[in-house]
Amino acid sequence: MAASPKTPLSRQARLLSKIVKMVRKERNMTGAETAAGMGVSLRTYQDFEAGRREFDFNKVRLFAKATRSDAVGILLAIHYGWPELAVLLMDNKLASACYILIRDLFTEVGPRLSRVPSALLVSGFRFIRDEVLKLYARQDASSENYIERAINESLEAPPEPPDDDEPDDDDKP
């Protein structure tokens, strides 16, 4: 039974449909290629992409595998209503990496994981943020980026020459 257009499930289906289309197009894949990668018929994939079936975690996982994207990132994008998040995370797999790291930490510390103070987590993520900012600062300062920027700037239109009617500083008494 299809959900009415105003129900949360219907909104999630529309959001998933938008995300799936965005990711597939970002990967320059056809529906047929994606269906083949998922191991489903083209019609099944088309229904999945259009949001015409019930939400299926397994199909999200198969889609992520077929498109080399992040299944956890897709689920977070749906949960937070931010479709672009799935595209942002599809190459670095940040959401899946966090899940795996948390899972591995749980294996080591067990239920004590629930008692980790949030301040420690915030501190850890601030450290990661600072390291990412340093990485981009190093990349921006690299000679290759400098040359690329300089070449692009050299290809822009040159500035207008000064008007000959106006006296230069040297011409002033």
Task: Describe the structure using short key phrases.
173 residues, mainly alpha, extended, single chain, 67% helix
Briefly summarize what is shown.
67% of the residues lie in helices and 0% in strands.
The pLDDT mean sits at: 89
User: What letter string, H or E per element, gives the SSE order?
Assistant: HHHHHHHHH
Number of beta strands: 0
Radius of gyration, whole Å: 25 Å
What is the CA-CA span between the terminal residues? 89 Å
Q: Which of globular, elongated, flat, extended, rod-shaped describes the shape? A: extended
Binned strand content = under 5%
Number of helices: 9
Residue runs with pLDDT of under 50 for 5 or more positions = none
Largest sheet: none
Description of the structure:
The chain is extended and about 75 Å long. The chain has helices spanning 8-26, 31-38, 42-50, 57-67, 71-80, 83-89, 94-109, 118-141, 143-154. With 173 residues, it is mainly alpha-helical.
SSE map:
Blueprint: H1 8-26, H2 31-38, H3 42-50, H4 57-67, H5 71-80, H6 83-89, H7 94-109, H8 118-141, H9 143-154
